[in-house]
Design goal:
single chain, alpha/beta, six-stranded parallel β-sheet, 29% helix
Length: 248
């Protein structure tokens, strides 16, 4: 059975947020990402696989390499493509994690690049941070580029889109943020609980959220007298920050 024009049209339409919302579906590609989502209990709408992957994905629809290229968002398709149902959205109230929990969480304040978003989800997964609060203007977690950049970690991390000002105003735990006027992260006492806020790629943490930061941190430049980069990429800064918290 060859892939139909309607199936191709549906998959391609999911590149756009309005269509993902309308259909309640998102796309994942590659045997690892699709496999992780299935093992985590995500509901599949379609799984397409080329012949060499059919033994691992027994309920998949067989497609040729050419058909998969028509479906795929990747320059080099990876043999498997899945269309999954978007889970019911979590809120701070319905999540098992709250801003009052004795755990470490991330909050993304306007992180807009899909690659950065996906990488941060993967970083959180690596460092055992299973909840990320996202401002409404943060990139959509189910954008195909985000899903791909997570390398399967989207199956392991709770993503909660909410009003960060409202959330942080009621948090009774430390609220950390990386700011240019912060204190050297390597010299500060860091707790095993709290919320770490990471800001927008160009503007950093928003004016509305900054007053709610209780612990202002700085990743120092170790070559201050040379013509170096103005700042760190937000995903790299997140990795450094999470690593320092976990190292203590």
């Amino acid at each position: 059975m060859s892939v139909s024009k309607n199936q191709i049209k549906l998959v391609k339409s999911l590149d756009f947020k309005k269509n993902r919302r309308k259909e309640g579906l998102f796309v994942a590609e590659g045997p690892k990402v699709v496999g992780d989502l299935l093992r985590a209990g995500f509901t599949s709408h379609f799984i397409f696989a080329t012949e060499s992957y059919l033994k691992d994905f027994r309920n998949a629809l067989a497609v040729t390499d050419e058909e998969l290229r028509k479906l795929s968002f990747l320059q080099h398709p990876q043999g498997v493509l899945g269309v999954f149902q978007i889970p019911a959205p979590l809120t701070p109230q319905t999540s098992s994690i709250s801003p009052h929990s004795s755990v470490l969480a991330l909050a993304l304040d306007g992180v807009q690049d899909p690659g950065n978003m996906g990488t941060i989800i993967r970083i959180a997964d690596w460092f055992g941070i299973d909840t990320i609060y996202c401002s409404p203007d943060t990139a959509d977690a189910y954008n195909p580029k985000v899903v791909q950049a997570t390398m399967g970690s989207i199956a392991h991390v709770h993503l909660i889109y909410c009003d960060l000002v409202e959330l942080l105003s009621h948090a009774d735990c430390p609220v950390y943020g990386t700011l240019l006027d912060g204190q050297d992260i390597y010299r500060q006492e860091l707790s095993s609980e709290g919320i770490i806020v990471m800001g927008n790629e160009g503007n950093g943490i928003s004016e509305a959220v900054r007053p709610l930061i209780t612990h202002r941190l700085l990743i120092p430049n170790f070559n201050p007298h040379a013509a170096t980069a103005e700042s760190l990429n937000v995903a790299i800064a997140t990795a450094i920050t999470c690593s320092e918290f976990r190292r203590r």
